[in-house]
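Long-time lurker. I teach an intro course on protein structure, and each term I like to show students one example going from raw sequence to a predicted 3D structure in token notation. This year I'd like something fresh instead of my usual example. Would anyone be willing to generate the tokens for the chain below so I can use it in lecture? Attribution to the forum is fine with me.
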Amino acid sequence: MRPEGRTSPSAEAGFTLLETLVALAVLGIVLATLFRLAGDTLVQHQSRESQLRLALTAEAALNAARLGADGLESGGWPADLTLTVERQDLAAAAAGGLELPAAAVGDTLDWLTVTVVDADGRSFALAGIVGRQRP
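-- Reply from a regular --
Happy to contribute to a lecture. Here you go:
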């Protein structure tokens, strides 16, 4: 016989419905926070990947110009990217506020600005000194 006031061991085992609901609510909040962080991280990664792609394309175009390639705006770039190349006389660029050593300004160099724009409107511009194209 059992002493009075004592319940059976099976009645004390387990959780109440309220404890289970509280645990599920806390778990839901934690999971929602984790999914939000993971989603934000994915968006940041995609944005950085797009920016890196634009930067690498601009750098490749600038290097191609330094090597004397013709038709930079039209040839060989991914179809979803728009490439704009602006060539300016280096002396005129220096007169316009570009800080260069006096020895760098000559009649054989140009200031080249390459701007790459993707389909989403993100852009990246890279500029540098290149040798003047001979006619």
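Some talking points for your students: The helical segments are 9-12, 17-66, 90-95. The chain has one domain: 13-131.
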